[in-house]
Amino acid sequence: MAETAQLKIGDKTFELPVIEGTEGEKAIDISKLRDQTGYVTLDIGYKNTGATKSAITFLDGEQGILKYRGYPIEQLAEKSSFIEVAYLLIYGELPTADQLKAFQYELSRHTLVHEDMKKFFDGFPSKSHPMGQLSSLVSALSAFYPESLKPSQTTEELNQSIIKMLAKMATVVSWIYKKSLGHPVIYPKNKYDYVTNFLYMTFGQRTEDVTIDPVVIDAMNKLLILHADHEQNCSASTVRIVGSSDSNIYASVSAGISALWGPLHGGANQAVIEMLEKIKEDGGDTDKWIAKAKDKNDPFRLMGFGHRVYKNFDPRAKIIKKACDDILEKLGINDEVLEIAKKLEEVALKDPYFVERKLYPNVDFYSGIIYRALGFPTDMFTVLFALGRLPGWIAQWKEMKENKEPIGRPRQIYVGATSKEYVDIANR
Ligand code: CMC
Known about the structure:
CATH superfamily of the largest domain: Citrate Synthase, domain 1
Helix content: 40-55%
Number of domains: 3
Largest sheet: 3 strands, antiparallel
CATH class of the largest domain: Mainly Alpha
Structural class: mainly alpha
CATH topology of the largest domain: Citrate Synthase, domain 1
Low-confidence stretches: none
Number of strands: 6
Number of helices: 18
Bound molecules: carboxymethyl coenzyme *A
Shape: globular
Strand order of the largest sheet: 1-2-3
Distance between the termini: 64 Å
């Protein structure tokens, strides 16, 4: 017999179905709760709420496990390219060699963005934050590719929207970087694969071919793979909820970019480097900063530490820490803040405050050190997270559409004033 949960309210008992995911995760299905009982649930921050059934990414926060479509993140980070992982997330299976070639070819046909988009760049102040630019520019793409606005697209139309979104994002991100330098933009060269093309448009020169160091290409692939999806996080949930109103892919992804920007989410990678630099300038006394992080009267938090779901090592952090050592060594870079980061981690992992709260380094603790070694300025870090997360957002958006999920619309418990009589302004 199927398992059920019983809910007792007053003298009435209600049976609620229990459902189980393929990895043994259990949930009480409350989708009919209000109709049956007149009650809703309250779960601020959705800490206990499964918002959907998804077949894209599995993570077990207690064990520190992360899989995309069933494949362990460790294997994908070691063996795959970013574009192969993007295909896996979006279409559900690893591509064959022919499928990968066709995918890469399709992407390379759409790397150009409409020339008029360049006028938007001129409108942004040169020091404006790249994330603000990115979310505006991605939303603006909808004006140039209006065929994506159709709420019910055929499979082929939907696929074209997906390809354009992926292809144009790399160009837009690299152009944001060029703009920050005041340099002219570099047009894509379609003979390069996705990641190499991105690095070429970012670090290349206008007139010349470039040879990008394979160490840099590998590192970039790895970082993008590690960020590619993370199930129902703040930005993915935003993308799904915006898309659930039948908003187009550009509007949905643009909203996801805005959600990612905050320092509690993707913006943590920028915040970590700024924190490490501050600790360095302050003399490198890690004990002092750990004490600040523990002090409830001090707003300082150890950035890059803690996670809503991981109550164990974030498996991505383990891979990045190792990659960080390797890449800095291969590039011959000695970055003092890496030592500070390692010391902070060591102290925090032994400190009862962090141990009791199960706070471990997350994906962003070491990623910024690698981005910096590759030559990116600090305020570009979260934009790189967005570039990596894009296939995940697309996969979540596509799944939500294919599942024909209803518009996202939570309830609330109203705690405001009840009835008040209107008072004319002269008498207030
Ligand atoms: N430094 C010091 N204390 C912390 C930290 C931290 N980084 N993170 C959590 N805590 C404490 C928090 O004060 C609370 O203590 P108490 O129970 O005494 O009030 C307890 O740990 C639980 O924290 P919470 O804020 O209730 O946990 P949450 O699940 O709501 O927040 C988080 C998760 C990631 C927002 C939080 O850990 C945080 O602010 N970390 C720093 C920012 C960061 O690195 N964010 C990147 C997350 S990974 C990238 C991504 O996918 O977005």
